[in-house]
Amino acid sequence: MRRRIRLAVDAVGGDLGPEPVVEGALRLADRYEIVLVGPRDELSRAAGGRFAILDAPERVAMDDDPIAVTRAKRRSSLMVAAGAVAGGFADGMVTTGNTGAAVLAAAVRMRRAPGVLNPALATLLPAPGASPTVLLDVGAATACPASWLVQFAELGAAYARLRLGVDRPRIGLLSNGEETVKGGPVQRSADVLIAALPERVGRYVGHVEAYELFTGRVDVVVCEGLTGDITLKTYERTLDATAEVALAAIRTTLGDAAKPVTSAVSSAIRAQLAAEPGAVLLGVRGVCVVAHGAANAADVAGAIQVAASCVELDVAGQVPSWATGAPSSRATAVAAET
Q1: Mean pLDDT of the 36-43 span
Q2: pLDDT exceeding 90 applies to what percent of the chain?
Q3: Is 111 left (phi over 0), alpha (psi -120 to 50) or beta?
Q4: Residue 182 has pLDDT above 70, yes or no
Q5: Stretch 224-252: mean pLDDT, rounded?
Q6: Each residue of 144-183: b (16+ CB within 10 Å) or e?
């Protein structure tokens, strides 16, 4: 009998403490084997004996320097969770902690996949009436050379092919206009290089503006991490504000009869328009999903589901191998067995 997917979940990295992490994990405890990572005594009190615990006495704060804490806090929840994946104890990790430190912990413990220049965080954005759009990078590399953007295009296209079932992904480069003269020097250089990628990668449509993320015109949108992070957070807050305005209008119109309607409308808006609640780190030898620091229980549960889906699809092995031409982890394992 095949064992359940086992995930190491950093329970102390986020802004809200372990409570929403424990609650989110409980929602999926019957489907996956979840191991909480953090200070044993604190998590024993928070979880009440409902989960196995990997002791990690050190924690990484949101304002900690990623490089400094990766070197100084070897027993942090991030480093221990990443080490659990690297050592084969866990199939993947989930964190709501410091993004930069999570990326470095995964890169140090799991290591980059063969041929990968720098990992990238990818998330799915909704495109009503069409397949979701892969946006990357959303925070792993705040600034990068054109060569990294080219590989992000390859990684994103491979991810879209595997996760979304898109045979020939359409790739766009996020810019301030569709014309080739738009963007800075890095974007203009990347534009030329991505256009020269072989047809097997996908179909490059050129520069795209931010609104194209939600039209279904492209399957993959590539950008630097700073731009991607700002784009994602702007979209999420705009969605929140739009929903608040819509619900307020319903309450004003319907009065006392509004409550059941607003609940249904709110659920429908979230189901159709919310971004995926976790970004997948592409380009490392293991599954690492990073959620928002202020993630609630539903967000944590969603991030756990994203991680489990990536484990099932062997995203960590298949995506980098397809993008770089290096053998996948699964293919290497099979070859070793034979």
Answers
A1: 94
A2: 64
A3: left
A4: yes
A5: 86
A6: bebebbbbbbbbbbbbbbbbeebeebbbbbbbeeeeeebb
Q: How far apart are CA 75 and CA 92, in angstroms?
A: 18
C-alpha count within 13 angstroms, C-beta hemisphere, residue 88: 1
DSSP label of 81: H
Q: Report whether 311 contacts 91 (CB < 8 A).
A: yes
Question: For residue range 133-172, what is the model confidence (pLDDT) as tens digits?
Answer: 999 999 999 889 999 999 999 999 999 999 999 999 999 9
Distance CA 179, CA 153 (A): 19
**Would you tell me how many other CB atoms lie within 10 Å of the CB of residue 1?**
3
Q: 132, 62, 141: which is closest to 272 by C-alpha?
A: 132
pTM above 0.85, yes or no: yes
Amino acid identity of residue 93, one-letter, is: M
Integer Cα distance of 254 and 39 in angstroms: 49
∠ CA 244-139-164, rounded to 5°: 75
Whole-angstrom Cα Rg for the chain: 20
Give the Cα separation of 149 and 173 in Å (integer): 9
Dist. CA 300–CA 94, nearest whole Å: 8
Q: Give me the pLDDT at residue 2, please.
A: 66
Residue 255: half-sphere exposure toward Cβ, Cα within 13 Å: 1
pLDDT in the model for residue 7: 97
Q: Judging by DSSP bridges, how do beta strands 120-125 and 279-282 pair with one another?
A: antiparallel
